[in-house]
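Write out structure tokens for Citramalate synthase.
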Amino acid sequence: MAKERLYLFDTTLRDGAQTQGVDFSVEDKTIIAEALDALGIDYVEGGWPGANPGDTAFFAAPPKLKHATFTAFGMTRRPGRSASNDTGLKAVLDAETPAVCLVGKSWDYQVDVALGISNEENIELIASSIEECVRLGREPMYDAEHFFDGYKANPEYALACIKAAYEAGARWVVLCDTNGGTLPHEVSEIVSEVVKHVPGDHVGIHTHNDTENAVASSLAAVLAGARQVQGTLNGLGERCGNANMVSLIPTLLLKEPFKSRFETGVTAEGLKSLKSVSNLLDELLNRAPNRHQAYVGGSAFSHKGGLHVSAVQKDPRTYEHIDPPLVGNHRIIPVSDQSGRSNILAQLSDFGLKIDPKDPKVDRLLEEVKEREFHGYAYDSALASFELMARRRLGQLPEYFDVESFRVQVERRHNAKGELVSVADAVVKVVVDGQRLMSVAEGNGPVNALDTALRKDLGKYSAYIDDMRLADFKVRILNSGTEATTRVMIESTDDSRHRWFTIGVSTNIVDASFAALLDSITYKLLREGAPASK
């Protein structure tokens, strides 16, 4: 039996851009659009031409897409204007994108309160706007705003709105759960009724995540008959976000009954890039990826308990619902005070370290992990530090440089403008190939100053860490009192978008920070294959 085609519509660059704290540059938009295109998305919604200078500039120099249909977003014409004489609609159509998605009212309450017009006039706005798109040779779509609330209040009118769009030539009528309050069973029931009036291969679904059900509701809509699914990368969007395209895609491709019934533009090869596309968005937004995100998160296939690890090694299906590489992810076997020998051996194997399972060094390493975690370390979240510790114990870590000493001080003073400021400066002395090097640097805090000074001159190793930068810095006080133990976790990244986590523990926050910094740099040198010091 031939599979039915599902169409994926990504609105990261439009609806996702409404996320608090998100501000895409034109370059960001181009990079994301091209990544979505390569992934296999069918429609990439670029924004609203004329709504702001950034969107206008983006549509003036659109991305070169090979697969996806570039789509402009806008509104149906305003009351009192013809479709050809409405400046807002004209700006959208003047972008000359192959497809246009127009939002309009489908709830009689909104028509009365927001537009202040009759129900009949609103239907005319919808129909004439879609007809104008058709006249200009565009592929028109109608986003039926507040459709589910409108249907609950007045099903006849909500249906009349989408039927008017469809009959005017809309390729897609998209049912929007605008406030995110509709539950999956309601979506299923309502979409089942809709497809009796508008063919399912012309019906789309657009959900928001205000009840944490956006993905579930989208899947329910597909099973009920909708054939276009809208969402955003990593669930970006205003309030609680939109349906997460990164969760929807693998579910549609890998899970039954979707796998057997439907096909999308995303191939099995494209699916392998899902994690990297998800991480790309976070990188552009300068935020850490959600480690617990379904399918692609760093912890999505992480197994901490020793019994779980033993079972997974025998049959991954016991604790993994898919094979991680299918979505570009991989299995992680953390080590912690709950670990058994199987965790240690599995993790050493992942590091490429070969050791006899009966070697007493394994038991000593396990005991050391438990002892260090008792004193505040957390290696399940800092695998880079664990790898360095394991390699040292096994004699497989090159010696790169020695830190002879470091000093940091913070001064609070008035600057030349009379403003009260805090300035930190650090001095770090290291030995590389028998040569003593000293670096001095200022920073906006003691950790930043130490980081800058440490990396300022590492002799022959400086070139290996040029693209390295700190992505996140977290401090946790583990107990109270004047001698409280402090745990510092540092996340680092580089131009290859590789991320690694290191840890330091001390009663002194600066000392703990410096230990985590040292591990971060050492791990980078190890990963880059830097030669040992002479």
